[in-house]
Amino acid sequence: MPTISLDEIPTLTLLYKLKKILPGDDKPTYEASGVLNDKISVIRQDITTLAVDAIVNAANTSLLGGGGVDGAIHRAAGPDLLEECETLDGCETGSAKITEGYELPSKKVIHAVGPIYWKEGSRSAELLSGCYRTSLELAVQHGCKSIAFSALSTGVYGYPSVEASIVALETVRNFLDKESQAEKLDRVIFCNFLQKDEDAYFDNIPDFFPPVVTENVAQEESSTEPSELASQLPDAPTAEPQDAQDTQPSTKKQKTTEADDDFVIVEKDDVKEGQGKPEL
Asked: What's the whole-model pTM score?
């Protein structure tokens, strides 16, 4: 499968020019920043194809692989990823740990354990925010200049896409608003596989990363043909991911004890329509 370079991933600046994202009707919560709009990207793509410094895996507490995006990342990275994950002693919900990328085009994999929405209740937002914040901190600590997030917890873990996107956008914006942190990252990418997740980001981005309006905006928009701008966007994926039951490593490595209620194995027949897709 061909890889997608950082230069091929559209920034918010480009997406606003293409009118893929439209300004909100209400006054945005945060001030517009051209610098930040050049740092933030949204793309609907298979995250295993991104040639960036770090991708963020929607992992479970065991860190030993699973279905959906977790299984896809482990398959693409090869068996060495599982071997390194076995040395990490798992990970708590709301946190993350980092490994090498091995056979992936990304240099690192950050394994973030998102909350199970119906289990964590009122703590879900805090825990999900912790995933994004810890992942950003790990990226900076390990010298990663670009990081791509999968849509954490929006699959079988049941987190509504709209709510999840708000938590992700707010956490990233607050992180980048710290001057010392913003300088250490060149790009933060929200990589979604499903249309519902991309739509949620497109709807909520203007509140956190509004467009920069200038007097010359009409001239800037007419300087480049829309078709030329659109040609810069990579094609969205057309094939569905394999079913979770076809991608999971052995059950023995998925659930180590009968009492381990931090990780839930969800049977395909029990998953509501639209949830058993590529993200945890």
From this structure: 0.81
Beta-carbon count within 10 A of 91 CB: 21
**Distance between CA atoms of residues 106 and 129, nearest Å:** 23
Tokens representing 72 are 């896809």
96: which 2 tokens?
Answer: 């993350």
Round to whole Å and give the CA distance between 128 and 120. Answer: 10
> What distances in angstroms separate CA 126 from CA 14, 271, 278, one per listed residue?
31, 25, 23
What percent helix, strand, coil does the chain show, rounded to 5? 40, 15, 45
How is the chain split into domains, by residue range? 4-270
Class of domain 4-270 (CATH, top level): alpha beta
Categorise residue 84: left if φ over 0, alpha if ψ from -120 to 50, beta otherwise. Answer: alpha
Residue 115 is which amino acid?
P
Amino acid at 228: E
DSSP annotation of 177: T
Per-residue pLDDT band at 239 (split at 50, 70, 90)? low
Predicted confidence (pLDDT) at residue 225 exceeds the cutoff of 70: no
Distance CA 77, CA 91 (A): 19
Per-residue pLDDT reduced to its tens digit, 172-202: 999 999 877 888 999 999 999 999 999 999 9
Instruction: Report the C-alpha gap between 152 and 116 in whole angstroms.
Output: 10
Dist CA 147 CA 139 (whole Å): 7
CA-nearest of 137, 143, 149, 231 to 176 is: 137
Determine contact, residues 68/278, Cβ cutoff 8 Å: yes
Predicted local confidence at residue 244, as pLDDT: 37
